[in-house]
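> forwarded from #structure-qc
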């Protein structure tokens, strides 16, 4: 019996010893980066020469909203009504603002609900909307090609962008901050000078941070940035506090630090020259502010950012 027990112990030891050194598969020292990740050394410019100057957040004054289902003949809204659905460009990777619910498969969030309100004003039914997922870099090309009627995707209104598309009034006022791993020692944007920072391509955040960090990495989506931060490939993510709040909610080992160092005024993007649609969307946003819809949508999605503020005050240029 003792011989059998000794043999069993020797066999167990042999099984648990693991492979010989020559059989150990080496583990890669470098985690793979997301597809289309690139290092950026200078802020991108979308137009030649000096950047344009304008009163960016002053939009077109709305007229009375037509009754749902009764769009003016010949208007852009009538064409949308005839099609039977609004086509809206949105995100599916920004938790709280525009994301895909993993249980239902539906796209949800603050921006998504704004798009639904536009559809409701056209049709009387907020479900008559087709969502097209677009990256930050695709927003303007999708509007220019006519692939979407509107873009509602944390899109900051800038003079540069107004050269290519039109915008509604401001529907949300955000600001850029910094997301880091807890206990990183980074307390705000001033701590990025010797750090690696991740941003999304096509975003205003890229230009705002590229000269403040040692290395800036550009990726297609903000969730790509979160993966790179988790893998230690970057030290921080910098973008609007709305987006960072969603990333922090997905990873309790991260935190948003520092004060806002920019103002990011979100507008609904509209194809250039469709002034009637801009005025219509502005009418929808006016109604959302006054009847409590805006505050209700904020309470549904953005409470991680704090108590609901007053909706942005509309500014018009005519």
């Amino acid at each position: 019996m003792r011989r059998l027990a000794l043999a069993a112990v020797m066999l167990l030891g042999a099984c648990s010893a693991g492979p010989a050194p020559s059989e150990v598969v080496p583990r890669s020292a470098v985690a793979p980066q997301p597809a289309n990740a690139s290092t950026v050394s200078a802020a991108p410019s979308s137009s030649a020469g000096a950047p344009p100057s304008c009163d960016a957040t002053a939009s077109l004054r709305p007229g009375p909203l037509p009754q749902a289902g009764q769009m003016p003949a010949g208007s852009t809204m009538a064409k949308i009504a005839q099609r039977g659905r609004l086509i809206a460009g949105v995100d599916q990777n920004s938790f709280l603002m525009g994301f895909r619910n993993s249980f239902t498969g539906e796209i949800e969030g603050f921006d998504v609900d704004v798009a639904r309100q536009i559809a409701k004003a056209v049709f009387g039914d907020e479900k008559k909307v087709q969502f097209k997922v677009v990256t930050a870099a695709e927003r303007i090309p999708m509007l220019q090609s006519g692939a979407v009627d509107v873009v509602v995707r944390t899109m900051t209104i800038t003079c540069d962008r107004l050269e290519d598309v039109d915008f509604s009034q401001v529907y949300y006022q955000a600001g850029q901050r910094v997301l880091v791993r807890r206990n990183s020692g980074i307390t705000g944007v001033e701590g990025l000078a010797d750090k690696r920072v991740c941003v999304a391509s096509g975003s205003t955040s890229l230009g705002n941070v590229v000269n403040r960090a040692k290395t800036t990495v550009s990726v297609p989506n903000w969730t790509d940035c979160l993966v790179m931060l988790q893998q230690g490939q970057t030290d921080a993510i910098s973008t609007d506090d709305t987006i960072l709040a969603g990333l922090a909610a997905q990873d309790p080992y991260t935190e948003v630090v520092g004060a806002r160092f920019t103002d990011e005024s979100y507008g609904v993007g509209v194809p250039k020259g469709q002034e009637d649609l801009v005025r219509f969307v502005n009418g929808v946003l006016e109604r959302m502010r006054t009847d409590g819809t805006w505050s209700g949508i904020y309470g549904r999605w953005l409470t991680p950012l704090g108590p609901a503020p007053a909706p942005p005050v509309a500014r018009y240029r005519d």
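QC bot note: The first helix runs from residue 2 to 16. The first strand starts at residue 38 and ends at 40.
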